[in-house]
Amino acid sequence: MRAGELQRIDRFETARTKGNRLYARLYGDILTGRLRPGEALSETRIAEQHGISRTPVREVFQHLAKEGLLRVVPQIGTFVAPISLAAVSASQFIREALECRAVRQAAERVTRMQIAELRRQIAQQTRAIDAGDHLAFFTLDEAMHRHILAIAGHPKVWDLIASVKAQLDRVRHLSLEDGDWLEMIFRQHREIVRRIAVHDAPGAEQAMQAHLRTVFGAIERIAAAHAEFFEQEPQPEREIA
């Protein structure tokens, strides 16, 4: 292969790598709430900040728009999309259906070693709260739910859940910015682990269901101050008989 061709490949790979990094950065910033719903994004400014041309930035914007995280308005600009309440409801339904059944199985089959690991995770969550680090708490929250599915014998189910909960995670991140809400979620985690540890399958399921349904209360609290953060898709019109 000629030197010129190698240089073109290197430039292509560098642009692609930067584009992938930009996608990951914007995706994470939108999910964690660093970029708020409705916030404007400048294609030119982002291209300059990341040292790439506008073309890969435009491609990243289009990708995120397809995922419902950005809204591109022709001739006006690009904005962080509002949170889709329909998507939140759908992903919560999936989580409840799968995780409530899984936590029953986890309570029935959990071992002493697995209980010890759950309690270790609770201790880590305590330290994250004491440090006021809601982002670290979110990561530990995810790890605990993933571990419960593994105890139930369904570790791969978490991959399915993770693939459909981006809009739900946006609500969760915003809610955890409130210290009181963070403490409540932590108390619910402790109750779930307590129920699992004593092999109380019905109690564990009830605790998990209450925990997962808190997202609806979170939406109410956030919307009270920022109704514009959310988008309620219009319901299809019913035919008149």
Provide structural commentary.
This protein has 241 residues and is mostly helical. The chain has 2 domains: 3-81, Arc Repressor Mutant, subunit A (Orthogonal Bundle), CATH 1.10.10; 84-226, Four Helix Bundle (Hemerythrin (Met), subunit A), CATH 1.20.120. 72% of the residues lie in helices and 6% in strands. It has 11 helices and 5 strands; from the N terminus they run αβααβββααααααααβ. It has a 3-stranded antiparallel sheet. Strands 4-5 form a two-stranded parallel sheet. Strand 2 (70-73) and strand 3 (77-80) form a beta hairpin. Helix 5 packs antiparallel against helix 6. The longest helix has 30 residues, at 3-32. It is elongated, with a radius of gyration of 21 Å. 28% of the residues are buried. The model is unreliable at 236-241 (pLDDT under 50).
In short:
The chain has helices at residues 3-32, 43-50, 54-66, 85-109, 112-130, 134-151, 157-162, 166-176, 179-197, 201-212, 214-225; strands at 40-41, 70-73, 77-80, 83-84, 230-231. By secondary structure, it is mostly helical.
Which key features would you list for this structure?
single chain; 241 residues; mainly alpha; Arc Repressor Mutant, subunit A; Four Helix Bundle (Hemerythrin (Met), subunit A); 2 domains; 3-stranded antiparallel sheet; two-stranded parallel ribbon; 11 helices; 5 strands; 72% helix; disordered C terminus
What is the CATH homologous superfamily assignment of the largest domain? GntR ligand-binding domain-like
Shape: elongated
The CATH first-level class of the largest domain comes to: Mainly Alpha
> What is the total tally of β strands?
5
- CATH architecture descriptor of the largest domain: Up-down Bundle
**Helix and strand composition category:** mainly alpha
Number of domains: 2
Distance from N terminus to C terminus (CA atoms, Å) equals 71 Å
| Mean model confidence by pLDDT | 92
- Would you identify the regions where 5 or more consecutive residues have pLDDT less than 50? 236-241
Counted by DSSP, the helix tally is 11
**H and E order:** HEHHEEEHHHHHHHHE
**Largest β sheet strand count, sense and barrel closure:** 3 strands, antiparallel
Strand fraction = 5-15%
Oligomer: single chain
